[in-house]
Amino acid sequence: MCFIMYLILFCFVLGLVAVASNPSPYFAALGLVVVAGMGCGVLVGHGGPFLSLVLFLIYLGGMLVVFAYSAALAAEPYPEAWGSWPVVVHMVVYMVGVVLAFVVFGGVWYESSWVSVDELGEFSVFRGDAGGVALMYSSGGWMLIISGWVLLLTLFVVLELTRGLSRGALRAV
Amino acid sequence: MNPYVLITLLFGLGLGTTITFTSSHWLLAWMGLEINTLAIIPLMTQHHHPRAVEATTKYFLTQATAAAMLLFASTTNAWLTGQWEIQQMTHPFPTTMIILALALKVGLAPMHSWLPEVLQGLSLTTGLILSTWQKLAPFALLLQIQPADPFILITLGLTSTLVGGWGGLNQTQLRKILAYSSIAHLGWMMLILQFSPTITLLTLITYLLMTTSTFLVFKLNKATNIATLAISWTKTPALTSLTPLILLSLGGLPPLTGFMPKWLILQELTKQDLSTLATLTALTALLSLFFYLRLSYAMALTLSPNNATGTTPWRLSSTQSNLPLALSTTTSILLLPLAPAAMALFTP
How many domains does one find in chain B? Predict the structure, then answer.
């Protein structure tokens, strides 16, 4: 189990490097799919299956799909994949940074240093993550309302930023 | 901008700061900071030219990095200490990270490079909101945490006063001068934070008043560089003769309001047996004083050449409301005798 977690996190870091190395948005979105998928795997392995499902559905299935369609509309003639020279330079630098960080900080990591979210395990009906979501709807009601309002504010912010075609803030629209 | 959108954004600005002020949970405080960042972005791009969009992009990137650092430090604190209380931070690592994240948010040296460029790309009104309102929420958080290492706040403070003074010396654009002045004042606030949060709050409030006055004076004269400032005597003669007092108050000269925080900070540092630091900081304040004096010189102490037709704008009345300017100018010049009352008011 620990080995599988290690593999998942390894692929997570590889996906992060693939996104951060500045390829074209289509390939970066592919990197993000890998990152989100691996993140969901980590969540499942540490006692948060509900949050993992929510992440898959909303982030990958909602937000990333919309982003992919928008990026497809803004197609460029010579997209830069992970084979082109600047992207490779970024990737090498980030990989070196990751290895350095592991050498500096990875000394005290050992096999049983990972623990899962819910300590009760088999003795409780509510898992850690589902119980948290239930709390968000009951005691955390005001925070939920503020979060919903913030999402509405974000919508207005984005609409105001992209308003006006090329006379507005974004000349490329 | 559509007035409904404007109201929503300004309401978002108010709500974000209020949420951060009233929260005891790190997640809610972070939410307030993010609401502030989101709400000011369209206000910054409302004049749709590329310079403003560039400034907005830089602002968004730095604030997002700072917010991500803040969230990381809060979750690390929750992991290490098991709780999310703002005032109960005991572990040194998340505390230091939060101080650095909030320093990036506010524009302290050495994380200050974004502030002059961002302020330069904005209109004077939006620059005013950025310099004053957006500093309140991070300071509300900074006032509540106890730093683990006494040197980090002192380093941030001294570097900021030095960079703020030195960087402002070569500037002719007024918004960049005000950005460096902001960095220097934030440095003074950081220096005294661990010894007396009361004086930090006092410095913040007096800095807000003085900066508001300066921005409003520049806005009334439609001045964005020293050359335009030099002909402001033709537009608002009475205000032009008062503005050196505001600028010298920013510079910290007695008997003006700006002397009050500097005096109290130097006194408190000396009481804490840090006289060398107090001397160094007072010397760096001389650098800032030089460019405030240069602005006063260009504005009121010398009359720039102008042709006869340029000497008549004072006959026309301006459409800008004068009440905020009048209030902030009065307070930024005359508040020094109220120092004991201010100290009593701002004690947490």
Answer: 1
ipTM of the complex as predicted: 0.86
- The runs of H, that is alpha helices, within B45-147 are 50-81, 92-106, 114-120, 124-142
Task: Give CA–CA dist B250/B217, Å, rounded.
Answer: 14
The chain-wide mean pLDDT, for chain A, equals 84
Cβ–Cβ contact A151 with B under 8 A: no
Separation CA B248–CA B291 (nearest Å) = 10
Name the β-bridge partners of B25.
B85
What is the CA A102 to chain-centroid distance, rounded? 21
Average pLDDT of the segment spanning B116-135 = 95
Rounded Cα gap, residues B193 and B147, in angstroms: 9
Q: Contact at 8 Å (CB) between B75 and B38?
A: no
Task: State whether B38 and A143 contact (CB < 8 Å).
Answer: no
A122 part of a folded domain: no
Greatest pairwise CA separation for chain A in angstroms: 61
Assigned domain for A77 exists: yes
The range of the structural domain enclosing residue A17 comes to 1-106
Q: Which residues, 6 or more positions from B214, have their beta carbon under 8 angstroms from its beta carbon?
A: B178, B243, B246, B247, B250
Give me A144's structure tokens: 């939920």
Instruction: Give the 3-state secondary structure of residue B35.
Output: helix
pLDDT in tens, A26-37: 888 999 999 999
DSSP 3-state of B343: helix
- On chain A, the residues whose CB falls within 8 A of the CB of B35 are 150, 153
* Residue in A153, A157, A169 closest to B53 by CB: A169
Alpha carbon distance A152, B165 (integer Å): 42
